[in-house]
Amino acid sequence: MERVRTGLRRSPPLLILAPSLFATLVFVYFFIGWTFRVSLTSWQGLTPVFDFVGLQNYIDLFGDRRFQLDIRNQVLFTVPFVGGSMLLGLLLAILVDQRIRAEAFFRTVYLFPMAVSFIVTGVVWRWLMNPAMGDRATGLNLLFDLLGLDSLQNRWFATPDVGIMAVALPAVWQMSGYTMALFLAGLRGIPEELREAALVDGASSWQLYRHVILPLLRPVTLTALVILGHISLKVFDLIIAIGGKQLQLDVPAINMWQTTFDANDYGHGAAIAILIFLSVAVLLVPYLWSTLRSEIKQ
After folding, report:
1. How many Å separate Cα 22 from the centre of its chain?
2. Where in the chain is the domain with CATH 1.10.3720.10?
């Protein structure tokens, strides 16, 4: 009888979670499995074709010059985006942590870009980074012209080979505030006694941050690195809003969209999607596993 009562007590939470668990199982894991199945077939065209071809679609991708360009562009976007967001976010967090006046105002200003979608950011920054120069200059190029800084004018995202790095600039603008919030929470979690003890021992401000504060921020730094990294690997809407479907701005997500829905090559499109999924999983799974182990030990 006692077992029955215990089972009844446990049933309501399970019943409440059941719809969410079922939806996750169907709309996440089932479709991941379905996509992987399609990636192993020769499906081209609107009529489903499930002829098994093994890993041939993946082999074709790594021999495709466009996909090689996608990987190169992904790296050129990820490095300045992740590095710039973390560096700027850390600097902003350190400044706000000085107990400045109107701290709440500055926090809101720095966080506001995060509330804007990548599409809106892309539309605004497409005008700011207008590649026109000279008399036709607008946005940042016009500002540089008015300030007499003509040497800073450039064609931004239209620059051959490295235009994708310019697209990282609005991404840094949007996500640095979020990174600031993470670092600020970490800074506020450091006991004040540790700072005072370091200062009493004769540590300068630089030594305080170098040897005391920054090492204590490693868990926050890892969290920010993982979050920004997986955002970078899935970037799509920002690039489309800024530069459209230009080959020099091509990344795996855009290639996947065009291959699947424009060319109707579902086999290769699914293979690209699986590779993007695996790249994100390689970043997230070790982090989640280490976090889970830490919580269990505590």
Report:
1. 27
2. 73-251
